Amino acid sequence: MSRTRQTKGIRVAGGVFLVAWLAGCAGFDSNVSLPADAPRVVGAERPRDRDHERLVAAFGGEAKAPEAQRLLSEVTKHLVDASDRPDEAYQVTILNSPVVNAFALPNGHLYVTRGLLALANDTAEIAAVLAHEIAHVTLRHASQRNELQARSTLIKRVTENVLNNAEEAALVQSQARSNLASFSRSQELEADQAGVKVLARAGFDPYGAPRFLTALGRSATGGSDNSADMMASHPNTRDRINLALQAARRASGAPGIGAAGRSEYLSVIDGIAYGDDPADGVVRGRRFIHSRLGVAFEAPEGFTLENTSQAVLGASADGSRRLLFDAADTPAGQSLEEVLRSTWNDTIEPGSMTTTTVNGLPVATALSVGKEWSFRLSAIRIGNTTYRLILASRSGAGNLDSLFRRTLESVRQVQPDEARAIRPLRLRIVTAQPGDTIQSLAERMPVDRPLDRFMQMNGLDRSDSLKVGERYKIAVE
After folding, report:
1. What share of the chain has pLDDT > 90, as a percent?
2. How far apart are CA 263 and CA 121, in angstroms?
């Protein structure tokens, strides 16, 4: 649960979020743009940029990684010198976010998250990301998108107001969304191709682009990639990889031409923060602890937890049991019983509502039974904040009561001294020794699904094996 969501509860019952929670329970480039005529970054001295400040704040602030910052700035300079616009200037910002993302603004601001830095495995891969983003700027993609949006808006207004035809205006709006999605996908492919050319010209290994796209696909889908739907703003990752491979072959021929810079890159990211910021809550195995909000709990045995911006989600290995924990937005003076009734649209079983205390905290609990799922509900108050813990079980999945009781009894208030002692995970670069295996290195990481995480962050497949003397990334406390 992020710092910006602490007072914004989620109307889980009967809503889209609960449906997604039960169904899944669980690109680089975001649609961020400034006006096409926004001022360019022209040197070290620049006026205060409030749009930049707001954007950085929305992504958790700037990450402190001076060595990585230095490398990114050097790489960017090489790329710009090799581009069609060597006169342009850019500023790179590392965002303190665990998500994998990168984007560019038309005024020359480039952004990469520390989550993206953790996914890349060499300098050529991160250079490929920056070359892609620079291509968006030099190709004026934001300006073109704004122009297309403006034309669509004008046509809609004329249709709706002048011709007084709301039905036709709705059709125009739908077509405009489809056109923008298609346009965005074509822009991504164009930026990929232009980026690979610049990558090779700058002396980097152009195969860094398809390598990173492969890692991105694994990270986003857990190893598989579904076809992009009609409204998706990014092309199918598999298509992007194939086209990037073709572009790399055209640019340099066989692999091995151009610098990859693996050792240099791993050295500069050694020690950077990995995963959730403690201020937004951290998952340690089955435990969740939020230092700023001062709350912690432990999921049942066999559950995997995921800390999202909206809630903490959990699921058993077979998906038959699920967990949700979030902070509720409650009016002053609202009782815990009222919290459950007002935020749960399905029927609460008569006589199931009870009040009690857990670890000195006031708690209300209730039961709701649906056609396919049964739910144990609770609302817990810590200070002025109300939290909801919900456990769901598919019909026939076994006794939910004991799991719910043990989980609820683990909810506790975190004291200031304990909160201050929580530290983020850090990337550590280790050298494989004789006898080391993918499994043994993965087991050193205190994260959920450590084997999957280790392979994703090191660009490995299940059929791969470690190379003695090679350096690999792990996450440690």
Report:
1. 46
2. 9
- Please name every residue paired with 387 in a beta bridge, in sequence order, or none if there are none: 327, 380
* CA distances in angstroms from 127 to 71, 116, 203, 361, listed in the order given: 10, 12, 10, 51
Euclidean distance between CA atoms 283 and 305, whole angstroms: 7
pLDDT (0 to 100) of residue 2: 55
Q: Cα–Cα distances in Å, from 403 out to 219, 249, 409, 417, 436?
A: 31, 55, 10, 29, 37
Using CA atoms, how far apart are residues 386 and 380, in angstroms rounded to an integer?
6
Q: How confident is the model at residue 43 (pLDDT cuts 50, 70, 90)?
A: very low
Q: Would the CA dihedral through 322, 325, 326, 330 be positive or negative? A: positive
Q: Judge whether residue 117 has pLDDT over 60.
A: yes
User: Which residues touch 376 (CB under 8 Å, ≥6 apart)?
Assistant: 365, 366, 367, 390, 391, 392, 400, 401, 404
CA–CA dist 188, 333 (Å, integer) = 51
On the 0-12 / 13-18 / 19+ scale of CB atoms within 10 A, 468 is exposed
Residue listed under structure tokens 């979020």: 17
In this prediction, residues 297-317 reach a mean pLDDT of 88
Location of structure tokens 């929670």: 21
| Residue 426 CB neighbour total at 10 angstroms | 15
Decide the pairing of beta strands 303-307 and 425-431. unpaired
pTM of the predicted structure, to 2 decimals: 0.69
N-term to C-term CA, the chain: 20
pLDDT band at residue 170 using 50, 70 and 90 as cut-offs: low
Residue from 104, 102, 97, 93 nearest 125 by CA: 102
Instruction: Give the tokens for residue 181.
Output: 């999605």
- Average pLDDT, stretch 73-84? 94
Instruction: Give 46-67 pLDDT, tens digit per residue.
Output: 455 777 887 788 788 899 999 9
